[in-house]
Amino acid sequence: MTRRIYISCLLAVLLVASACTIIPEPKSVEDLPGNISGTKYFLYGVWGDSSSDIFTGGFNGSILHYDGEAWNVMTSGTTNAIHDLWGSSSSNVFAVGSNGTILHYDGEAWSALASGTTQNLYGTWGESSADVFAVGSGGIILNYNGEIWQAMKSNNANALYYVWGSSPFDVSAVGFNGTIIHYDGEAWSAMASVTENDLYGIWGSSPSDVFAVGANGTILHYDGNAWNEMTSGTINSLYCIWGNSFSDVFAVGFNGTILHYNGDTWDAMVSGTTKALYYIWSTSPSDVFAVGGGGTVQQHGGIILHYDGNSWNTTISGTAQSHP
Known about the structure:
This protein is mainly beta. It has one domain (8-314): Methylamine Dehydrogenase, Chain H (7 Propeller). 2% of the residues lie in helices and 48% in strands. The strands form seven sheets. It has a four-stranded antiparallel β-sheet, with no helix packed on it. A four-stranded antiparallel β-sheet has the order 5-6-7-8, with no helix packed on it.
């Protein structure tokens, strides 16, 4: 759920942190002296095809791959920030980022695709290899038909930070000032939101069980008819949400915040970090990954956490080199 963003009001609050993704980017690698994940750079998005085939991306074009044993650096071919990743298989993975960056991985190498925009792209999700969405600044929405990316009419000018759907006819995007828009397979239209807080992430287990998270601990739930606020128990901004079922949902955010929803209530989990967590993704209830970066000046750098069903622990990539 990278997720990731250049918003002055958020930067003033976070200073140095946050794909499902709001991303204030460090000015240079010198700003990142620490190294927890094995990368110097903040990590904003994560997606995988299996527990032994996982990709994460972040600042300065960094992309790492996990093969089930170790995280290793990949050559992305860009220095633009990678905000989010999604794929239909291990040989068909998309990454989106700043300045209209869209990359594609064919199982062998990453290559750039023409996006037709220089707007920052913050989130991506697909229903299939021939129906992929990307959203970003200025309300931009792009759709990939298996051959080219094309702009869609969003009927919205607010920045969009994440997109998710249950089918080609049920796709939703969230963004600035509580924006929620919905695509029915023909056109995008506004939904009635119950918050003016920025919304950074969205995920659902079905069309009638959808969650959105955002600034100041905001969590909304859609029951198929209307959006309603939930009690999160935190004032920390939440950047991403992901679940395995309607009763096993995770949200991550500022200051190492991790919340878990059991179908009834949201409860705080012990993350073991004060770094901002920008994205969360899983293969199962006992195989969950969260990525991020930041914290105090001494703690800058990327972080990757893993949850085994019992506790969260830091994983090490085994590399601390710069990423082309």
